[in-house]
Write a structure and sequence with these properties.
Layout lengths: L23 H16 L2 E2 H8 L3 H13 L3 E7 L2 E6 L20
Antiparallel strand pairs: 1-3, 2-3
Helix pairs in contact: 1-3, 2-3
Length: 105
């Protein structure tokens, strides 16, 4: 026998003043953007370590912001991307990272 889904009342329905606070996704976006503006381009793993936010939340934040044109992605290494803030003129703030070189012995 299936149980009916019951929806919890929202904060607005309960008259809770917390409605004016940012949602979790907005606060993650702001934290990621602030870090990118301060430190320049970062990988998702770097953003995860520097913000202290879980990888999945950072990934979703970067995905959301890249779709709206707030950040851009570029390939840094195979399967690794640098996330950069898109500036007003459409340019990005990028700090060059040292390129890893393979030394043959």
């Amino acid at each position: 026998m299936a149980r009916a889904f019951t929806e919890e009342p929202s904060a607005a329905q309960m008259g809770n003043p917390a409605v004016t606070q940012l949602s979790n996704s907005q606060s993650v976006d702001r934290k990621v953007l602030l870090l990118l503006k301060r430190k320049g381009a970062q990988t998702i793993e770097g953003l995860t370590m520097l913000t202290g936010i879980g990888w999945g939340q950072v990934y979703l934040s970067v995905d959301r912001m890249s779709r709206t044109g707030t950040v851009s992605l570029r390939v840094a290494y195979p399967s690794e991307y640098l996330v950069s803030v898109v500036m007003a003129g459409g340019s990005t703030k990028v700090i060059n990272l040292p390129i890893l070189q393979t030394v043959k012995t």
